[in-house]
Amino acid sequence: MDYKEYTGKSVNDLITDACQDLGVTSDRLDYVVVSEGSSGFLGLGSKNAVIKARIKSDEVPAEEVKAEETVSEVKTEEVPVKKSESEKIIPVSDPAKYEAAAVKFLEDVFKAMELEAQIKTSFELSENALDIELLGNDMGILIGKRGATLDSLQYLVSLVVNKDSEQYIRVKVDTEDYRERRRATLENLAKNVSSKVKRTGRPYELESMNPYERRIIHSALQDNDYVYTYSEGEGSNRHIVVALKEGVKPTGDRGRYNGRRGRRY
To answer: What is the spatial distance between Cα 155 and Cα 235, in angstroms, rounded to a whole number?
Structure first.
């Protein structure tokens, strides 16, 4: 993977931006500082910091494009819940039937993609939860850019499984522990962005995310003493804004905050 160049006021800010842009945590980022920048004298002669960054070579994601052409255009709105999730969960009567339906659907998809994959399923009756793990040599294709393909597969499987079910069944499709790795990436992103907002005082708009990923960001910062989060936008454009709490002063702002938001990536 080739290096991408990032330009901004400080190296720390650029590392945060690169992590978000590439969808990795800082420990998986390979970067080179081209210029640390300078503030100049009385604002004259200032120079931006510049870094070149890429995902570490041993962790570059596998090919993503082919699978995205197959399933990533599927809308990923949440499947309607048949009964309020706040109600007591009543276990389905025949979980094996729903596991079989999910496996049959995925086998047909993989056959169309000419992809070999092993499908493992487990059903937790107390939660009416179906967990599916996909195993194989080309699983990066099924993950897609920032998990878009995997999310689409999960959405489709959920439609198939819940089509004739008497109770709502929660479906999770995962491979190569992507869901947990993505959670760690988002939690690290939340930490980095909150530090940036605390330092600059400027609200920071994150990229658009699905409801599950937005919940991870909200949860990661809900007890933060300096910043708070809220969501803006509709549908696929809904995203999180991280902002400084009222009464908190920026810790590293050299000039007066003019109320403008930070960049959105």
So the answer is: 15
- Phi-psi label, residue 183: left if phi above 0, alpha if psi -120 to 50, beta otherwise: alpha
- This prediction has a pTM of 0.60
The amino acid occupying position 7 is T
- List pLDDT tens digits, range 170-209: 999 999 999 999 999 999 999 999 999 999 999 999 998 8
d(CA 62, CA 55): 12
Which parts of the chain fold into alpha helices (H)? 11-22, 65-71, 95-113, 140-143, 148-162, 178-200, 211-221
How many Cβ atoms are within 10 Å of 59's Cβ, its own excluded?
Answer: 13
Q: Find the distance separating the first CA and the last CA of the chain, reported in whole Å.
A: 20
Assigned token pair, 17: 């931006």
**What is the structure's pLDDT at 198?**
94
User: Which DSSP category does 58 fall into?
Assistant: G
- Residues 6 or more apart whose CB falls under 8 angstroms from that of 37 comprise 9, 10, 11, 46, 47, 48, 49, 50
| Closest to 207 measured CA to CA, from 181, 222, 182, 189 | 189
Pick the range with the lowest mean pLDDT from 37-46, 106-115, 233-242: 37-46
Residue in the block written with tokens 């522990």: 177
- Per-residue pLDDT band for 45 (boundaries 50, 70, 90) equals low
